[in-house]
Structure formats: C-alpha cells, structure tokens
Amino acid sequence: MDHNEQQDTAHAPSKRKEMTRRQFLSYTLGGAGAFMAGGAILPMIRFAVDPILQKKEKGNFIKVIEETKVTNEPQEVKFKIHQVDGWYESDPKLIAWIAKGDDGKVFALSPICKHLGCTVSWSGEEAPNLYHCPCHGARYDKNGKHLKVAPKSLDEYEVKMDNGWVYLGPLEPNSRG
Ligand code: FES
C-alpha cells in the first residue's frame, strides 16, 4: 500500500452505525424512568402481599382454667384469642364448655350450634343434662353428640394439659359423639 492509498482509507466514511443523540437520550431517560418506577412500585407490591407471605402461627394454645376446677358437669369458660388475618388484628372472645369425660380426661366443646350457628347452653329445665339451642330446639348430649335438629355434633377444642392448667387450641370435628 503506497502513501496515497493510506490517506484514502483514513478519510473513508466509517461504516460503524453510531447512536444518534436522540436514541442516546431516549435510552438513558427510559432506563432512569424504569429504575425510578421500580423503586416506587416494588415497595407497594411488597406492602400489599406481605401479610399473605408471612407464616401464620398455627396451633396456638390458650390457658383457660386450672385442671382441679374442671368437674364432670360442663362449665362455661370464656377466653380471648389474638387473631391476625392479613392486616387485620383482633381479640375475639370465645366460649368453651369444659368437662371431664367418663375416662376422667378433660374435654372442651364449642357452643356454636351445628344447625345454623346459634349459641347452645348446658342443661336447665327445658333440657336437663343436655346442651340445648334456643333457636330451633337442637339437643346434644354431654359429649356434644347431636340428638335432634342439628346435622352434626358440636365441635371440640384441641386440649392440652400443662403444669396443672388446661390449654385450648383450635377447633376440630367432634371425636366423642
Ligand atoms: S341454630 Fe341451633 S337449632 Fe337452629
């Protein structure tokens, strides 16, 4: 290659495609905009789904009564639980009917009638030694077994004994009636 050829090559137009100023600006601003939008939106998404992602505490037991105070005759015991449902927290009051069975073991029944959800009571003139529902007359025996109107037996709380105290856990289908 002589000297003239070298000069021609040096002045030949470049074949490389260069980015225009407009393209450069749109890429830069687009990227910065996406970054900022992500920074604003991601925390919002995280905030919205966080309670769903959090593990729910299972099997919490509540201390309700001393074991020595539980009799063969069912007694009404009121207690509070702490509930977390997404962002909503509450402390509903619950009722359990607690008694000792023929085997001497403590058990606890839900007072919610399995017909349409009214609250049952134990014994009294209208239904001696039975649970009775004031709404449509359902009857259950001491073990919560359904005798009349209601299609199922009363639910049963999970029961745990510890250090002389009775603890109640979640409700389960009745295993006694
Ligand atoms: S709700 Fe209890 S009998 Fe109907």
Automatic annotation (TrEMBL):
<dbReference type="Pfam" id="PF10399">
    <property type="entry name" value="UCR_Fe-S_N"/>
</dbReference>
<feature type="transmembrane region" description="Helical">
    <location>
        <begin position="24"/>
        <end position="45"/>
    </location>
</feature>
<keyword id="KW-0408">Iron</keyword>
<keyword id="KW-0812">Transmembrane</keyword>
<dbReference type="InterPro" id="IPR019470">
    <property type="entry name" value="Ubiq_cytC_Rdtase_Fe-S_su_TAT"/>
</dbReference>
<comment type="similarity">
    <text>Belongs to the Rieske iron-sulfur protein family.</text>
</comment>
<dbReference type="InterPro" id="IPR005805">
    <property type="entry name" value="Rieske_Fe-S_prot_C"/>
</dbReference>
<keyword id="KW-0411">Iron-sulfur</keyword>
<keyword id="KW-1015">Disulfide bond</keyword>
<keyword id="KW-0472">Membrane</keyword>
<keyword id="KW-1133">Transmembrane helix</keyword>
<dbReference type="InterPro" id="IPR036922">
    <property type="entry name" value="Rieske_2Fe-2S_sf"/>
</dbReference>
<dbReference type="InterPro" id="IPR006311">
    <property type="entry name" value="TAT_signal"/>
</dbReference>
<keyword id="KW-0479">Metal-binding</keyword>
<dbReference type="InterPro" id="IPR017941">
    <property type="entry name" value="Rieske_2Fe-2S"/>
</dbReference>
<dbReference type="InterPro" id="IPR014349">
    <property type="entry name" value="Rieske_Fe-S_prot"/>
</dbReference>
<protein>
    <submittedName>
        <fullName>Ubiquinol-cytochrome c reductase iron-sulfur subunit</fullName>
    </submittedName>
</protein>
<keyword id="KW-0001">2Fe-2S</keyword>
<feature type="domain" description="Rieske">
    <location>
        <begin position="98"/>
        <end position="168"/>
    </location>
</feature>
<dbReference type="Pfam" id="PF00355">
    <property type="entry name" value="Rieske"/>
</dbReference>
